[in-house]
Design a protein that fits this description.
334 residues, six-stranded parallel sheet, Rossmann fold, alpha/beta, 25% helix, 10 helices, globular
Length: 334
């Protein structure tokens, strides 16, 4: 017997028996190995998700890894048995933004696995096969469950276009920040500064490749070529801008609370800063992530601190929101 998590409404969940849905044309059925929990899953459970960005009742889970068990018509049978991860955004593929490759900006409206479609907190997940990215046969599926947040950071790293020898920095030391360090380190920077709020993230930051670590209350250098912000606060964005040289490149990935004070437009213009933003990961960023992961340049495992069964969903949600510095990435194992 297999099971799934169902969030009936905010604050209400149950563990149900799970019946796999046979793949229709163009779809694949994946046996889920592990599924990560992030702040947006907690929003789903608490009812804080913005209107239009969740559809109850819902099986959550948008960060996952697994193995293809069956495919529908029109899908290569060679996918069966392969280890995979998958994109969450259910883009339409026919609007102008999709044709431009900007699938996270699909004009048809927001649809995403684990938010408006059944997610991976279940024994199996059935989804369009076009969203799958195939891993190597020897890939660690537990580590691969974190490739969704890594892909979002990959989108930022691609936009930042850090060149070998450049001075680069990361603001924020959560999961996204730790991935940003690894992507920037892979580009052979001349210097890699990490700025956070917690001293206890210094060792892990340096293990991933940081050459210097400072907290925001310390004196911060400037003159950096590239900064990736991952903290999701307006103050972090301003800190990132302050680190840059004139003409430097800032990429924002965090989403501050509505109404937050933003960057100073005068400063942006006078220093001619280049500011880019990331919302989710398009296919190119996913492909880049899988390639970097396969090359051994991305190590998600040190970020995982807890693994629980599906019936530990409520405990997992509480862990994610606990603020405990000993809690990193929490996984559920169907």
């Amino acid at each position: 017997m297999s099971f799934e998590v169902v969030v009936e409404a905010p604050g209400e969940h149950r563990i149900d028996e799970h019946t796999p849905r046979e793949p229709a044309a163009g779809e694949a059925l994946v046996r889920v190995h592990a599924v990560g929990i992030c702040g947006s899953d907690r929003e789903v459970y608490q009812g804080n998700r913005p209107e239009g960005y969740v559809r109850y009742p819902l099986t959550p889970g948008h960060e996952w890894s697994g193995t293809v068990e069956a495919v529908g018509t029109g899908v290569p049978s060679t996918l069966v048995g392969r280890k995979v991860v998958g994109e969450g955004f259910r883009n339409c593929q026919v609007c102008d933004r999709c044709h431009a490759g900007e699938t996270t900006l699909c004009s048809a409206g927001y649809e995403e696995t684990g938010f408006t479609h059944p997610g991976a907190m279940a024994a199996t997940l059935t989804l369009p096969a076009r969203l799958l990215h195939v891993l190597s046969d020897n890939a660690d599926l537990t580590a691969a469950a974190l490739l969704e947040p890594a892909a979002c950071v990959a989108a930022a790293a691609l936009k930042a276009n850090a060149l070998p020898g450049e001075r680069v920095a990361v603001v924020g030391t959560g999961t996204l920040g730790m991935f940003a360090i690894q992507f920037l380190k892979a580009a052979s920077p001349g210097e890699l500064l990490v700025v956070g709020t917690r001293h206890d993230r210094a060792d892990l930051s340096k293990a991933f490749g940081a050459s210097d670590f400072r907290t925001r209350d310390q004196e911060l250098p400037d003159g950096f070529d590239v900064v990736i912000e991952t903290a999701g606060s307006a103050s972090a964005a301003r800190t990132g801008a302050g680190l840059l040289r004139r003409g430097g490149r800032l990429v924002l990935t965090g989403i501050p609370a509505a109404g937050a004070e933003g960057l100073d437009p005068t400063d942006l213009v006078v220093r001619q800063l280049e500011v880019q933003t990331v919302f989710g990961a398009p296919p190119g960023a996913w492909a880049h992530t899988v390639r970097v992961f396969g090359a051994g340049l991305l190590d998600p495992l040190p970020l995982i601190t807890h693994e629980l069964p599906l019936d530990g969903f409520h405990e997992a949600i509480e862990l994610v929101g606990s603020g405990d510095p000993m809690v990193g990435k929490v996984l559920l194992r169907p």
